[in-house]
Amino acid sequence: MKKVLLSLMVAATIGASAFTVVSPGSPEKKTAPKKSVAVAIQNYKVIPAESKITWIGRKVAGEHNGNITLASGTILLDRTALRGGTFIMDMNSITCNDLQGGSNKRLVDHLKSDDFFSVEKNPTAMFAITNIAPRANAKSGTANYTITGDLTIKGISNQISFPALVTLKKGVATAKANFKFDRTKWDVKFRSGNFFENLGDKAIQDDVELNIELVAKQESVAKK
């Protein structure tokens, strides 16, 4: 009988401790449980065969243009919002579109040499997004983000920023951008008027223009 009474007393004590005593006139405070919100980051794999990168290099006497193949890349989206991306370019794939025959080969070989992109030592170039700023009131079909990231060429990384149009339609993500970068910041100084004198009409402009059109399809979903 004593054991039964002792058990009842312990149970009553535990039960009483499970409640908060509120003095008369004091409002009862209730704290809602915190809900964890899962954000689904969708990984879209770039399709190199459906994507295109075009370069333009200008000089006093004219200009040249060509293509660079994208080796691989990913675009990260949260629903339709851009969240990140990384892209690798195959520098061995550089072509020239405006010259023929031997002149074409000489220019391409020169671009791959140490005067320009040192392709044998650095077969790839990379761009990795580090910051994304939506552009307010962007009109349909115009750039809707300002993208900042690290561009690595010849093993040298520098930060660049440029406007881009990123869209998602029927499970296919596309990204389009046009921008210029100063090649001398990546130690590509051949015939630069800022580093060599008396070049005359042999001078080559420092700015290289890139036109980028990427097509990517959803690969996986990772929850964070």
From TrEMBL:
Cleaved signal peptide residues: 1-18
Gene3D superfamilies in UniProt: Lipid/polyisoprenoid-binding, YceI-like (2.40.128.110)
Signal keyword on record: yes
InterPro entries assigned: Lipid/polyisoprenoid-bd_YceI (IPR007372), TTHA0802/YceI-like_sf (IPR036761)
Assigned keywords, A-Z: Signal
Record-linked Pfam families: YceI (PF04264)
Top-rank taxon: Bacteria
Lipid/polyisoprenoid-binding YceI-like domain boundaries: 43-217
Name listed for the protein in its UniProt record: Lipid/polyisoprenoid-binding YceI-like domain-containing protein
Species assigned in the record: Rufibacter tibetensis
